[in-house]
Amino acid sequence: MSIKMQYQSAGSQGQHLTASGQSKCTAAVEQEKQQIAGEQVKCPVCGHRFFDKEDKASGFILHKCSICKNIWRIDLAALSFMNIKRSRNA
Ligand SMILES: [Zn+2]
Q1: If you measure from the C-alpha of residue 52 to the centroid of ligand 1, how many angstroms do you get, rounded to a whole number?
Q2: Distance 87 CA to ligand 1 centre (A)
Q3: pLDDT (tens digit, 9 = 90+) per residue, 34-81?
Q4: Secondary structure (3-state) at 85
């Protein structure tokens, strides 16, 4: 009986601590965001802004431009674009 009670109390308290701590964490993250150097990544065809890349980001992502409908394979480290599929309407 005592074991069951301890388990329930620990579980509920743990969840409350996590939930209440999130507001503080979010504020801290917002401050950090302003210190991170970013670079705008734009569509090479129409100039539509895709997203901001953090300087240390690397790897490859696929992104479809919502304006010109081109699909790009983007090398984040080199910021090079490869058109992997072209819309019929473009
Ligand atoms: Zn585009």
Answers
A1: 15
A2: 11
A3: 677 899 999 999 999 999 999 899 999 999 999 999 999 999 999 999
A4: strand
CA of 55 to the centre of ligand 1 (A): 22
3-state secondary structure of 76: coil
Task: Give the pair of three-digit tokens for residue 49.
Answer: 């802004």
List the domain boundaries for the chain.
Answer: 1-35, 38-85
Distance of CA 52 to the CA centre of its chain: 10
CB 55 within 8 A of CB 38: yes
Closest CA to 38 of 21, 55, 16: 55
Å from CA of 44 to ligand 1 middle? 7
pTM for the structure as a whole: 0.56
